[in-house]
Write a structure and sequence with these properties.
Elements: H1 8-17, E1 19-22, H2 28-42, E2 53-55, E3 69-73, H3 75-78, H4 86-99, E4 103-113, E5 122-125, E6 140-146, E7 157-160, E8 172-174, E9 185-187, E10 195-197, E11 205-208, E12 214-216, E13 225-234, H5 235-243
Antiparallel strand pairs: 1-11, 2-3, 3-4, 4-13, 5-12, 6-11, 6-13, 7-10, 7-12, 8-9
Amino acid sequence: MNSLTLSPTQIAQYASQGYLHIPNVLTEEEVLTIEPAYECFMRNEISSMGRDFCDMSGPYDREFQDYALVNAMLPRVYAPELQGNVFENRSANIAAQLIGADIQIDYDQFLAKKPRCPGAAFAWHQDQGYWPVGTPDTRTVTCSLAIDDSNLSNGCIRFIKGSGAERSLRPHRPADSNREEGHTLIAEIGEEEIIEHMEVQRGGITVHNEWVMHGSAGNPSDGWRRTYVIAYRSKATVAHERSIGFTHSHNDRVNWITTLGAYEEQMKDDW
């Protein structure tokens, strides 16, 4: 079975709030089919990834043994055997129900918080802050599969209530001195804003749009907190991104516009 029918209530919540929790999207047996490929990335066994393999909680030049929040961008590109897997099929069906059938995978990502790493935090941000400004159709469904139970003790995802309905981009700044040193952006939240922590059992997913403010705390627990992310956008939007050289790879030679400044037409040659 590659389909899962969402309820009208779930579809309405996504439209109004910009995020959703869907339990039991994959069975235990289905998660097990994904783990071997996932673990190859987490052990740094995939060659020639460049900046697509990095620590999302630190600078690009951090040594692998010092990573806290392991990030592998575009795993389906570096390991084509992942293409067409059960999570791709199931999440595509969910995305189509939420924003329409004219969608395709925009990017995928493996994220893992190492055990006993309070610093493995994901800063508050909106995904749209990382992507080119000026895209006419920003509709996005980002599906995040819990490979491990995700809870308060290991840094589960958290959302700012109401932010997904704002449909506007807040100011973001680089976590490091500039975007050439590290990929991570940070946006500020107000003291009055309401934070919702979303705990997810293995095999369940969270879904969020491009505008919702989200992040997560570190992982002081004794176990890993592993996540498999697939983001869907309209076919026209993906075609537009690729036409300007934007693939969601950290190795892209054309950088993205953010609220931080002007469009950079080309990165340094050594990227």
